[in-house]
Batch of 3 targets.
Target 1
Amino acid sequence: MKPLYLVVPLVLLALLASNRLHHPNDQAMLTHHQRHSAQFDALVRMLSADPQILSLTQEGQATLRPGHPPLSAQRLAEYQRRMAQLAIHRLSAYHEPTSIDFEFSHRGRPRGGSVKGFAYREEIPTALVPQLEAHRAQGSNAFFAHQRIRGAWYLYHFEP
């Protein structure tokens, strides 16, 4: 029999790893969005006022459209604060029509891993399903799907 001081750390490590391998379920994400809907809407309004933003991380790394003015340090800090409050790791904004991805959960490789988040779309997405988890359970290996939350808001799941 292995000594307890060796087994306990291994069990704890396995539990921590399993939590990092799975996205939050759809209901948890829907509840999060409902609780913070006013803050999500405010973030969309901020992004509409800053069309130079293409992507932004919670750490403050910004990709801006060339030829547009940079964000002020104060404005960048405000984005970081709001993203932290909403547990958004990264956002990607596309303009005309407005389409914004708010990355909530990322699993796997830094580039090309599975992503689940919230999306604001002025146009209805083509890959619209009644429930993301049910769609994923059908066994599709690679997919990009949306589930409507309210109005122009959706959950999305991208699996490369």
Target 2
Amino acid sequence: MYLTPTPATTTGAVYLALDHPFDQLATVTVSPLPSPPAVLATVSYWLGDQVAFSVSSDNEESPLRLRVPSLTGPFAALKATLDYHWGHRTFERTGSTYGEPFDGRSVVVPLPETPTITAPHSGPSDDLRFAWVCPPAADMHFFLIGTEVQWNVRGPCSVSEFKPFQLPQAIPAKRMFSAGEYRVGIAALDLPEVVENGPLKSWYGTAQESVVLR
């Protein structure tokens, strides 16, 4: 069956019957159990380098339940990968794993690693120093966000600290640090390998804190 949409027409309410019901129960158990326990999981089915379809868990607490099809007949050409995420409820610390090979059975996976950031709760702006821990091979994005100024620093996680510095006098005062509350954090991404004929297997994590400048 082929559908050829054009700008002048709208195609909707199209139902395609699959000869493979989604009647296989797979579970994803995250160990150790995170706190808070909310986790999301998605299985993507790849045909070459394109996602044919995906299935998400119907609950958010480990073990996660997914209804998946059996990869037999024409579905045997598909490759399945698992993505799972922790920390989406609070966003203070998050960890995600992408592209994990998935065989359609119940699996136990490690809790995604999360970076950590060390920041003073308060202090003078000329004595700030931030440090973080994340996989050395990852690339990091450090950010310091206020109401009038936002700093962004990018580099490898092997550079594990940053001390903000005074900007030149020629820069307008509104871009300087002033007293107030700032949000500070780090986002780190690691892309270590490619799954054959499929997506990148990768890891992504974030950590955030608040700091008050006097």
Target 3
Amino acid sequence: MFELLLSGVVATSIALYITNMSESRREKRSNSQNYILAFYGSGYMAHRDTLLDFAYDPAIGPDIATPRSKAEYAGWLMPEMDSRPEIRVSVSALAEFMGAARRCVEDNSCESGSLNAALGPYSVSFYDLFAPILVEMRCNATGPDGFPPAVDPEDDVLFFARVDPAQISCNDV
């Protein structure tokens, strides 16, 4: 009799565990899908289009493609950023979005695989083109207390772009 009761308790515990795991997976999948839908939705698409228009602007395009050192590229890009505030706004908005997605993965509330698959390829290109502005955001960022904030926009992009943050320095800009 005791074995029967014990096996019933074990079976119930296993069923509850499986149900809980299944609900957790569904919630993580749903959270991930919400981020992906937002990224490809009209709000963030407008920011991506702004950056795409900048990169493919006939007056700019050849300059972006010109091989040069990081310092030379930053020296060319930063004045362009200053003359086009909408570029800086879009870079900032996308970096903040990637930060929220990164925190969702790190909090174990989102599936890292699906977010990496959806955001990774864009993040690589985004970082390649706008690294100087992301590094500047990181190096010049101050929180309400006057210290750098805990959230690092450059590292948020690097997370999805699979770039090692240790290779980046404020001296690169």
